[in-house]
Amino acid sequence: MATAVYQRPSVIVPRKRSVPLPTPCLSQHPVFAKSTHAALQAVTRAESSSAPPVSVTVLNGSNGKTVRMHLDRTATVQQLKKRFLQETNPGSTGDVHLACNGKPVDDHQTLGMLNLRDTAQFITFQKCVGG
């Protein structure tokens, strides 16, 4: 049986890099000088008040009636619910669940965050509790 023997070279010569290493961006900015972690938040687009208002139609899923209104893109879903309740049942304090494009919307979301075009339709729905 033959055994191969590998001999390691006694002197290892490091390779020279032809391209210099880039300097890190975080060490150049004074805000990041003493930080260990950083997070970036993506912003799709800024909401401007000069944008045209959204024509909103709310369809009541219980009785089929529609309510139309014009709201700014900075208006929240909570404000939309409040106006809808004022126009359908004045003095009502009930809770309304709304869906837009087949998805339920949260109260804190603005119409600009929902990426709505010039017109939008919301539908009321009831949450079923039970098992």
UniProtKB/TrEMBL annotation:
Gene3D superfamilies: Phosphatidylinositol 3-kinase Catalytic Subunit, Chain A, domain 1 (3.10.20.90). Pfam families: Rad60-SLD. Residues 54-131 form the Ubiquitin-like domain. InterPro entries: Rad60/SUMO-like_dom (IPR022617), Ubiquitin-like_dom (IPR000626), Ubiquitin-like_domsf (IPR029071). Coiled coil: none annotated. This is Ubiquitin-like domain-containing protein.
